Amino acid sequence: xxxxxxxxxxxxxxxxxxxxxxxxxxxxxxxxxxxxxxxxxxxxxxxxxxxxxxxxxxxxxxxxxxxxxxxxxxxxxxxxxxxxxxxxxxxxxxxxxxxxxxxxxxxxxxxxxxxxxxxxxxxxxxxxxxxxxxxxxxxxxxxxxxxxxxxxxxxxxxxxxxxxxxxxxxxxxxxxxxxxxxxxxxxxxxxxxxxxxxxxxxxxxxxxxxxxxxxxxxxxxxxxxxxxxxxxxxxxxxxxxxxxxxxxxxxxxxxxxxxxxxxxxxxxxxxxxxxxxxxxxx
Length: 282
Known about the structure:
Blueprint: H1 18-24, H2 42-50, E1 53-66, E2 78-79, H3 81-104, E3 109-118, E4 126-138, E5 153-154, H4 159-167, E6 170-183, H5 189-195, H6 203-226, E7 231-240, E8 248-260
Parallel strand pairs: 3-5
Antiparallel strand pairs: 1-4, 2-6, 3-4, 6-8, 7-8
Helix pairs in contact: 2-4
């Protein structure tokens, strides 16, 4: 099945609250007298400076989304495409709004991207999708490290891994994801009784989980190819049930798509290398 297309609603990613404009106007990216904000640790802040980048501001994207209902057949493995599309759209809205804030600051990229889901007591049928990160800019070569589309790159790599990636002559392109909400078939009471005292593989469960995970990974790879990346690093696959009950499960594959830099944009050989300090305490 082909990857899902990004949402095209005019009321979606382009929307920004007025409060965000006020906050961003006071950051280092928008005003010479502004202060930077970030979720970086002190070590990460220093390491970014060693790589030639400066933080501009903490950027946020959010979307509160009502995820509709879709019922799977009781005894059949199948993807719940309505739910898959909803989860994909909501994350795309959040990511696009975060990226729009970074573009507003003239950033070359966003590091330390985190994508999470949370619920509120007043909206039990809704989920909030939140994307956060720190917008950064290269001090000497502004624009050289941006994604092929000319906009800010996104990456969930730590500052340490980001530094190592640059030292190896590569740069992040985009935080990519693939998702699949899948209904895992139920077993009948008779099937459960027959297998109660036997050691055997549960083939129906294995096949369902395998297919769902493959769909998520395939869609993540398709996103990386679409943005012009040469590979993906830091791939993880999360499995969560959210609000749908036991047998409807989301498989979410994420990673950072990367590309090779031209020789003139690589970190110089004299750049300090990150070191590790091991404590002697037990």
